Model the fold of this input.
Amino acid sequence: MASAQGKTVLITGAAGGLGKVIAETFLTAGANVVICDVNQQRISAVEEDWTKIYADRFLTKQTDVSNEAAVQELIDASVAKFGRLDVLVNNAAIMDDFSPAGDCSKELWDRVLAINLTGSFLTTKAAVKQLEKQEQPGGVIVNIGSNAGYMGFEAGVAYTASKHGVMALTKNTAGFYADKGIYCMSLLLGGLAGTNIFDSFAKGMHMEMYQKVMASGSPFEPGKNDTPLESIAKYCLFLSQSDIAPVSNGSCVLFNRNWPVA
Done:
């Protein structure tokens, strides 16, 4: 497996699901890891588990990524503990309820955009400022994207708009910061099983939209065409390598197990 020895890696939304798997992959590869999450109960559970294994090589912090001051505190705490920042993985996200434009409440729209897009912007903003000013400047930002970032009919209107925005954020950041040694790319994921994003369906979903989306492409079957979380984590580690990041800069890589079938 690729090495991340001595690097400091920050993963958002990482007290469970995909984010936790990414964090543990970097820890195993030798990195110092910072995770944030809004769920304090999940953070406490991670702290209990990791203290036994990874000792002082990690930091956890409850953070709302849509709050700029909280995001800056997160970056500052990361640097205070580990001295620098090398990799940011923007994983924090929520799903919508498959509502189309006519039925999507402004409250849902605002919440999804705030976490998925504004949150990724704010962490990117704070990270690039740190990556520019630190001794031995430079670093890597990996944005967790989605099929809904390049396809228009894979989710509700809010999630679709947010993930299209994440792709634009990726390409714009890559274009401006490459000559500063800061590289940005995105993984466009398909269906996932075992992630916290499905908490969004606790109050139900827009069944007409959901059924139309499912009927428009290949059926999603967990265990058959979902993308394994461990494979995604390994790809994040791969993209963070110093010889891979520059040539991957600006890329938005389909990593979706060919679902829906291309």
